[in-house]
Design a protein that fits this description.
Largest sheet of chain B: 6 strands, mixed
Number of strands of chain B: 21
Radius of gyration of chain B: 25 Å
Strand order of the largest sheet of chain B: 14-18-13-17-15-16
Largest interface: A-B, 65 and 67 residues
Helix content of chain A: over 70%
Number of strands of chain A: 0
CATH topology of one domain in chain A: MetI-like fold
Order of helices and strands of chain A: HHHHHHHHHHHH
Oligomer: heterodimer
Distance between the termini of chain B: 51 Å
CATH topology of the largest domain in chain B: D-Maltodextrin-Binding Protein, domain 2
Distance between the termini of chain A: 7 Å
Largest sheet of chain A: none
Radius of gyration of chain A: 24 Å
CATH architecture of the largest domain in chain B: 3-Layer(aba) Sandwich
CATH superfamily of the largest domain in chain B: Periplasmic binding protein-like II
Number of helices of chain B: 16
Chain lengths: 325, 518
């Protein structure tokens, strides 16, 4: 991997971010509804003068292109502006919510990879056996069922019917002053349902991908050789076949990151998880332009960075790609 | 693999071993669950439940109210209204301090009322206030341009928080002042933490000027936007109180919970009315006979008993039926399809007409279901109704504020005195393009304007009631609005809680007497 490749990828990333900012800015302004009316509505009504002063205060009376230019210049200076709704800096609103989202997304990612790969590998060992059929059926269901439905079903089962898990956010408010261990356990307790909900759809994908990839690997010559040498079947499957079958999983895991973030939006809404997804959802309903833009900017940045890391790491992992530019 | 299985084991252990008990201080913690998101916590520049509940805990106000609509001392230990009604003197408590230790003075009271007058959306609350004199640190004299009987109610905690002048008087716009998210007040609870859209944490004010109060150590308002998750939190004991609950299923479900009590008390001053507004400027609806025909075709009893499962009650007029100013004798428009059809024919619409109905995005039971019912019911009098759903509040507010509607359903609050929450809908001087919750019906009747203007300054309560009776008779005849039902607000709370606020302002009132019992 040479320097010009890295620089080119970084420039692509930058241009992509610029495109995202401009497109989001214009799209969000196409939605009907005036933020000043929303703010006035939230205040409980207003006069024409108050509406005008709100538009003036938030720069909404300037031409759209001027507003776009002002926004891009402030983002270039790392200033995401102030929320129309909360009158607080967007950066601090996102700062409060980015960690819950990262915690949810990473836990779901790990859960789906570990369980998915395990299920896929087991299924591939006896591709026509009942276990394989069960994995196929479960993974098809997991893939087909909408994530919000899974979430609601898990809530009904494990929060309402069997009151094992809480659904009111990330932490019990009554435990917020408890010692760190109690708080960690509390967060883990709250994390179980949303992380599983988000993981299920990707778990299914990983299981199917691993199964297919393992079936390929298991029919390869080097596996036949390994078996001919009399190696233990467990070593053959997990050490030789699975290792080779994991390469496509790694690629997909990187690319899935964007999907996980968009899935997190729904899961956060269903489970009241205090992350960026819920902030984005609420902000769209409130026409809180700076907050919507800020969240989309951050989410896009996370996806672009994740893809860059995948690209770079893949080149490290696969020697055949090293010389390509 | 081994490491991963250890991690998984640890996670599973963590998930299943939660046995820690809630950490209570002596007076205990009250967790209020709410679907409402406050923009900030300063009720002087922002109306609405979301801000008022925390604002009334953090800020004290000149007066507070009991459950019989009687003013009680709060920051003002006593008060006098001059005989001509043009001056109100407030004698303030001498021992009241803000949470930062500075004393509450008449300067703060004067500053707060003037700030509220200039910045709060309810312009009528303090419109007649000309100046406020402060002869000494504990006396504030409010000078009025005309008698203003609504003033005392406007001095309630929900409407007149006393702000610290030494913080808000720095020249910044009070509507976007940074202190709105980190307020210093003189109320029973002090802000500890405000996480926008998530929670408001308030702890006991140890120097509260009313001795022995507050009883609780902490109030936490936990925002849970999904009502079903909120119900689970209440049932599992993760939340202790759920005010402003309006869904019949929610109410019925929590009523069955042995640990919870459910009450409809505490919403008399809020006066939430669900109504159908007519755009009287539209050609089809400018004829009062068409509006009356619609009223005769709709059955309030069906809506409240069948659609709302009996939790809401019919509302016949512009003033909430629990208010002392409600007039029992106004026309009710009981269902009469023959009369409705005759009125349509008289108005020249015997062959029917097409109308569009909008509704404020909100609980389906109160809005969409009622709109769908209207569609089927109005068909019986030849009106072909198209239900136009709005994807969100901004879209609906744009249509109604911009007068781009024919029929629109909405929930509007009375806010205690008719001057504050009722006049705005019917005064012809309040027809404002682009402004939601103004006279969006574009209803004009000079005699109604005159009655309302007279009632606003009438000091004799009996005469004032008579004026409002006249007003109600007139608008119930003109029907710029067809009032459907009062919103069935209920409060669910843990039965161990004592002195739950059920006065006229409900939870928009200082909860300094609420405590945990056995």
């Amino acid at each position: 991997m040479n320097a010009s490749y890295v620089i080119r990828r970084l420039i692509y990333g930058f241009l992509l971010m610029l495109g995202v900012v401009v497109l989001n800015f214009l799209l969000i302004r196409l939605a009907p509804g005036d933020p000043a009316v929303v703010i006035a509505g939230e205040m409980g009504g207003a006069t024409e003068e108050m509406l005008e002063s709100i538009r003036e205060a938030y720069g909404l009376n300037k031409p759209v292109l001027t507003q776009l230019w002002i926004y891009i210049s402030s983002v270039a200076q790392f200033d995401l502006g102030e929320s129309f709704f909360f009158n607080q800096p967007v950066a601090s609103l996102i700062g409060d919510r980015i960690w819950p989202t990262i915690l949810l997304v990473i836990t779901a990612q790990l859960l789906s990879i570990v369980l998915g790969v395990l299920m896929g590998a087991i299924a591939a060992r006896k591709p026509h056996g009942p276990l394989s059929a069960l994995v196929s059926v479960l993974s098809t269901i997991g893939y087909a069922v909408p994530v919000f439905w899974t979430g609601i079903m898990l809530i009904i089962l494990f929060a309402s019917w069997l009151p094992w898990f809480p659904v009111e956010g990330m932490q019990s408010v009554k435990l917020r002053n408890a010692d760190w261990w109690t708080q960690t356990k509390d967060i883990a307790h709250h994390l179980v349902l949303p992380a599983f909900t988000l993981a299920i759809i990707y778990l299914a994908q990983y299981a199917r991908l691993t199964r297919a990839s393992m079936l390929d690997a298991l029919s390869a010559d080097y596996i036949r050789t390994a078996r001919a040498k009399g190696l233990n079947e467990r070593i053959v499957v997990f050490s030789h076949a699975l290792r080779n079958a994991l390469l496509p999983i790694l690629t997909v895991a990187g690319l899935q990151f964007g999907n996980l973030i968009s899935g997190a939006l729904l899961v956060e809404t269903v489970f009241n998880w205090p992350g960026m997804g819920r902030l984005a959802f609420d902000s769209i309903l409130r026409r809180d332009y700076p907050t919507i833009m800020g969240v989309l900017f951050f989410a896009s940045l996370m996806v672009v960075v994740a893809n860059l890391i995948t690209d770079f790491s893949y080149r490290f992992a696969d020697p055949r790609l090293k010389d390509e530019t | 693999m081994k490491l991963m299985s250890k991690l998984m084991g640890a996670a599973a252990f963590a998930a299943l071993s939660i046995t820690a008990a809630p950490v209570f201080a002596d007076g205990g913690t009250l967790v209020i669950a709410s679907t409402q998101v406050p923009r900030h916590l300063n009720g002087a520049v922002q109306s609405g439940i979301a801000t008022a509940v925390p604002s009334t805990q953090i800020f004290a106000s000149p007066l507070r109210y009991d459950e019989n609509w009687n003013p009680q001392p709060y920051l003002a230990e006593s008060w006098e209204v001059s005989e001509d009604g043009l001056s109100v003197t407030l004698n303030l408590a001498k021992n009241a301090t803000f949470h930062d230790g500075k004393p509450v003075t008449s300067e703060d009271v004067a500053f707060s009322i003037m700030t509220t007058k200039e910045n709060h959306p309810f312009k009528s609350m303090f419109a007649p206030v000309e100046t406020i004199e402060t002869p000494d640190a504990n006396t504030a004299v409010i000078k009025l341009s005309q008698p203003h009987p609504a003033l005392l109610l406007a001095l309630s905690p929900a409407l007149a928080p006393v702000l610290p002048k030494h913080i808000y008087g720095d020249g910044q716009d009070p509507k976007s002042h940074p202190a709105n998210s980190a307020p210093i007040g003189s109320g029973p609870f002090m802000l500890e933490e405000f996480t926008a859209g998530e929670a408001v944490v308030m702890k006991k004010n140890p120097n509260f000027f009313l001795e022995g109060r507050p009883k609780l150590d902490e109030i936490i308002i936990r925002i849970i936007k999904d009502p079903s998750a909120l119900l689970i939190a209440m049932e599992n004991g993760d939340a202790d109180m759920y005010p402003f609950m309006a869904g019949s299923q929610e109410i019925r479900r929590l009523e069955k919970d042995e640990d919870l009590a459910v009450t409809s008390e505490g919403y008399a001053a809020v006066g939430p009315i669900n109504w159908l507004a007519f755009n009287t400027a539209s050609e089809k609806l400018s004829d009062v006979r068409v509006r009356q025909a619609i009223a005769y075709a709709v059955d309030r009893e069906f809506i409240t008993k069948a659609l709302h499962r009996g939790v809401s009650s019919p509302q016949r007029g512009p003033i909430i039926e629990s208010s002392p100013y409600f007039d029992e004798s106004i026309p009710a428009y009981d269902v009469d399809l023959d009369k409705a059809n005759a009125l349509m024919a008289e108005a020249g619409f015997g062959d029917g007409m097409d109308l569009t109905i909008d509704y404020i995005p909100g609980p389906k039971e109160q809005q969409q279901s009622v709109a769908e019912y209207m569609k089927s019911q109005l068909k019986k009098i030849g009106i072909n109704v198209t239900v136009r759903a709005a994807p969100d509040f901004p879209t609906w507010a744009g249509r109604v504020g911009g007068h781009d509607f024919e029929l629109s359903m909405d929930v509007v609050f009375n806010w205690g005195d008719p001057v504050i929450g009722v006049h705005r809908t019917y005064l012809s001087s309040n027809i404002r393009q682009g402004v939601i919750w103004s006279n969006t019906q574009q209803y004009t009747n000079t005699s109604v304007d005159d009655i309302l203007n007279a009632a606003a300054v009438e000091q004799d309560d009996d005469k004032r009631k008579a004026l409002y009776a006249q007003f109600q008779q007139q608008v119930a005849t003109d029907l710029p609005i067809y009032w459907i039902n009062s919103l069935p607000y209920h409060t669910a709370y843990n039965k161990k809680l004592k002195n739950v606020p059920t006065g006229i302002w409900g939870t928009m009132h200082p909860m300094d007497m609420v405590e945990w019992g056995e």
